[in-house]
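in:
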């Protein structure tokens, strides 16, 4: 039979294990695709809402342009800023010479992008979405996010250490230094 003091510890252990299992499952869902050549990326805009929300992690498989079809959601280099990637839906695609010409649009956008890629190039095609996870990545890009990710865990560790130091020991007697539990 568990003592009254053991029940809160069992509950805390249960929550700890639940968070650990959830964290591992999340890591497998986001990082696991890397092992088979797929690529996760965080969508930072609302241009694909409601299908993809800002902060969702998008898992893409690399495909040749010839494999893309109208209606597919693809990730490609922004034709106006090659350092940026966009994830939008294919509206039209056709081949001309050694290139594929695409017209894409975000579900929440009114405008379209017109871009081309060499027939031998690669683009990403949506495989699945992991909702909300990217909010942590978005948060870490802000000073507040860095503060929360560094300061909160440090404060929790300090509080736990102070609790261990000041908490009365079972039995009420003085313990010998170095006494192993």
């Amino acid at each position: 039979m568990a003592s009254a003091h053991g029940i809160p510890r069992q509950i805390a252990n249960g929550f700890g294990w639940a968070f650990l299992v959830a964290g591992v499952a999340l890591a497998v869902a986001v990082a696991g695709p890397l092992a088979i050549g797929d690529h996760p990326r965080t969508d930072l805009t609302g241009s694909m809402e409601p299908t993809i929300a800002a902060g969702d992690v998008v898992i893409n498989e690399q495909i040749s342009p010839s494999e893309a079809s109208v209606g597919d959601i693809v990730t490609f280099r922004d034709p106006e800023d090659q350092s940026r990637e966009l994830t939008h839906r294919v509206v039209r695609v056709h081949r001309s010479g050694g290139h594929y010409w695409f017209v894409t649009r975000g579900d929440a956008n009114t405008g379209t992008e017109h871009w081309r890629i060499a027939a031998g190039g690669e683009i990403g095609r949506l495989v699945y979405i992991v909702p909300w996870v990217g909010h942590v990545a978005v948060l870490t890009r802000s000073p507040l996010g860095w503060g929360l990710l560094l300061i909160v865990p440090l404060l929790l560790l300090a509080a736990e250490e102070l609790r261990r130091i000041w908490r009365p020991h079972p039995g009420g007697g003085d313990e010998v230094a170095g006494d192993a539990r």
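note: The longest strand covers residues 81-96.
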